[in-house]
Design brief:
Strands 2-6-7-1-5-4-3 form a 7-stranded antiparallel sheet. A 5-stranded mixed sheet has the order 10-9-8-11-12. Strands 13-14 form a two-stranded antiparallel sheet. The chain is built from 11 helices and 14 strands. Residues 387-397 and 402-426 have low confidence and may be disordered. With 426 residues, it is of the alpha+beta class. It has helices at residues 15-44, 52-64, 76-94, 204-207, 209-220, 227-261, 272-275, 290-303, 305-318, 363-381, 393-404, and strands spanning 2-12, 111-114, 121-123, 128-131, 135-139, 148-157, 160-170, 179-185, 191-193, 198-199, 262-268, 322-326, 351-353, 360-362. A hairpin with a 4-residue loop joins strand 3 and strand 4.
Length: 426
Amino acid sequence: MQRLQAFKFELRPNGQQQRQMRRFAGSCRFVFNKALALQKERFERGEKKLGYAALCKELTGWRNGVETPWLADAPIHPLQQTLKDLERAYSNFFAKRADFPRFKKKGQGDSFRYPDPKQIKLDQGNSRIFLPKLGWLRYRNSRDVLGAMKNVTVSQNSGKWFVSVQTEREVEQPVASGDAVGIDMGIARFATFSDGSFVAPLSSSRRHETRLRRYERALSRKVKFSSNWNKAKAKVQRIHSRIGNARRDFLHKTTTAISQNHAMVCIEDLQVRNMSRSAAGTLDAPGRNVRAKSGLNKSILDQGWFEFRRQLDYKLAWRGGYLVAVPPQNTSRTCPRCGHVSADNRKTQAQFLCVACGFEENADVVGAINILSRGNRKLRDEGQDTSDASLGRSTAARIACEVSGAAMPPAAGTRRSNSGAAGCRA
């Protein structure tokens, strides 16, 4: 099977190379904004939008024109790739996968991409890479780049420059190992598994909240665009970068462990954007409990649920497993023993008590059990073989232990919930 993988490293450019990269990123940003403005003008006049080929002709005119001759100093391929990015953004908008494209701002997502691997040379032995119009750049070589090079993206974040090398290689078809597990995402518990174990949240933003608030307050007191303002802004950016790095590290370690130990993972098909939407409302119809909803939105976004699902999806595919997303409705209100659905089953946020049969368990564990059950049912309805994933036998055994009142040991290597984990003993 073909595997696409990106290898990202921190660059170590000299002063001249940094200035050149800033110019190239600025040129790509200018081309994107100018092309977007042109498309909006055509839309307002009732004309059709220009395709990629037509935009490339416009780009040639801009590079050879008297108003923007400095565009010719930047490599042509990254500028063309910027137009492809705009075309893709338009396609995603019309397919209702994203919002309408917005103009880019300086310092936010500065990057440019080289699509032709023939123009790039990678010297891993000496930890350097050759890029057109930049020459040889040194980078921090933390691991080997595997596979044939497809493209290279240079990006800037918090004053540091990074290079991402995307490769393609042929690997053997993996065979999944492990059983099936259901995962319920939450705030108090980042991920609760159907066997009773759970992963505590990192809450990266909350750990740096005090320092970030202090630096943002200092930034607000500076004269905008002054030297002191730029220094204060750099401090705020470094904190945000540290928060993001800690969150990504936590998510990568968690998803790697899950994908290595399970052949099938069932999760809820959560619409994070809708769940974290502001409740402020309008002047005519103001929202209620706006402050509480704002705190909840912040906590949801701090967990990184969408990134967790994205990483889990491709890591399971790399190891031969598969990810199943099920509807989230009433997962924590349905009794896994008798199937009774009622809001009264969940009296509190953490405790589940079935009003029909008396089954009692942590509400997040109940949600994870129901998610696993729905995932197995979904695969059976689609006619797929779920024998590799054990069909949730460990979950069924755990529920039987709970009903019979037998004691259960905690799962090895995991934190124990209120009721324990799978596997009962007399």
